[in-house]
Design goal:
The chain has six helices and nine strands; from the N terminus they run H-H-H-H-E-E-E-E-E-H-H-E-E-E-E. By secondary structure, the protein is of the alpha+beta class. It has a domain of 168 residues. Strand 6 and strand 7 form a beta hairpin. About 27% of the residues have low confidence.
Amino acid sequence: MAEADTKASSKKLVAALVATVVIVGAFAAAYALLGGADMVADLLGGKGAEPVASTPATPAKPSAPSGTPSTPSESSAPTESVEPTEAAEAPATQPSGTTSGGSSTPAVTLPTSDQAARMYWEQVASQEQIGKLVRGEVSRFSIGSVSVSGDAAVVPLTVTYTDGSSLSGRMVLRKYGTAWYFSSIARSGNPLTVTTGKSADLAVVQTIVNQQATNQDLVAGIVSGAYKTCTIAGVSSGSGTATVKITLSGGSGSPVAGRITCISKAIDGTKHWFITSFSKN
């Protein structure tokens, strides 16, 4: 009898446990399906806090290194680059050693293009005597009384050559503005055939004008009678150049050593020589 009661109690206990498990499982399922957490929050008088969407932090811009200019903001207008203005046209240069006026040295008035071309072609026509001078065939020349008429000075010459022969001739200097320029040299009886109405070589003309305009002492002395004899001391030649060493003396001025500078230019395949200056040493 006692054993039967024990078995009956055990069966009731097992049945109670099974029922408890079933009830707990059903409650758990209902809790999950019906949003148990929200229900509990509502029963307690408040709703659960909604999750806050986190915004990723914007990384800070690196600070500009020391000495680096800050970048302008987008709202600031870009600055236009300014083009440099064109330089004013340089004035025509005066020959070295002259002034533009206002001092004790008078300004040099350069010859016109026609006058310069005339000097160029008169020298081309003077190749007989200029050539002999450059080749060292002249030993000296004596200077007679100079005749000045207008812008021209005719200088009578007696030329003595290294071979002992001599002849008479003339040298012509022309004055443009305040400066004297060598134009021609020829033996007597040779009227010179000068080309006219033809352009000259600009490089040669520029050299002649610039050098003669800045070396006026000797030619001015010849015109004024300060020198009566020109002695040739030798000739040195280079590539397209020749320097004739001279000594001027015999007049009212003191003897002076100088040089006659010449350059060459091929015209129609023939070398021509041009006297660019008479200058002191």
